[in-house]
Design the sequence.
């Protein structure tokens, strides 16, 4: 069985994330979407909220699992017996950052392979940080995030 993991903070999950997840699920027998929980980072959504949203967004695709990780990704992948790491890239800036991470991960565990997947063109400019800023001003998020996420963002900024 060919298994892969797609880790990220997914704060919030974007249409670009979902695009990469769906495409990767077509390639691998099993895809685990791994939600990063770094205690040093401040997230808009809790790990449970992000896991709920992603689980709902991928529930119709049987070979996708969603989990939360609060340790080094290579250690987590070793526990799950996953040797392929998927990383989404939009452009050179993303690639440079992701390339450095892949080298570090490979140093920590030479058995981990990183595969870069470019985003589809319509999601090229979508960044979680920009979406949060737009949502904080009650901007139109159509096409940038799934409706479930748009609703959660609206509720988050109404209560904050």
Sequence:
């Amino acid at each position: 069985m060919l298994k892969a993991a797609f880790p990220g903070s997914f704060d919030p999950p974007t249409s670009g994330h979902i695009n990469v997840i769906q495409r990767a699920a077509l390639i691998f027998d099993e895809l685990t979407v791994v939600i990063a929980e770094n205690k040093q980072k401040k997230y808009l959504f809790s790990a449970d909220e992000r896991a709920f949203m992603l689980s709902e967004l991928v529930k119709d695709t049987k070979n996708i699992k969603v989990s939360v990780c609060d340790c080094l990704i290579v250690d987590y992948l070793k526990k799950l017996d996953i040797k392929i790491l998927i990383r989404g890239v939009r452009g050179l800036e993303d690639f440079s950052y992701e390339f450095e991470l892949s080298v570090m991960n490979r140093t920590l565990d030479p058995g981990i392979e990183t595969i870069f997947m470019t985003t589809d063109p319509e999601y090229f400019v979508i960044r979680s940080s920009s979406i949060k800023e737009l949502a904080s001003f009650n901007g139109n998020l159509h096409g940038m995030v799934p409706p479930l996420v748009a609703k959660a963002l609206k509720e988050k900024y109404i209560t904050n």
About this structure: The beta strands are 3-8, 30-36, 64-69, 84-89, 113-118. The radius of gyration is 15 Å.
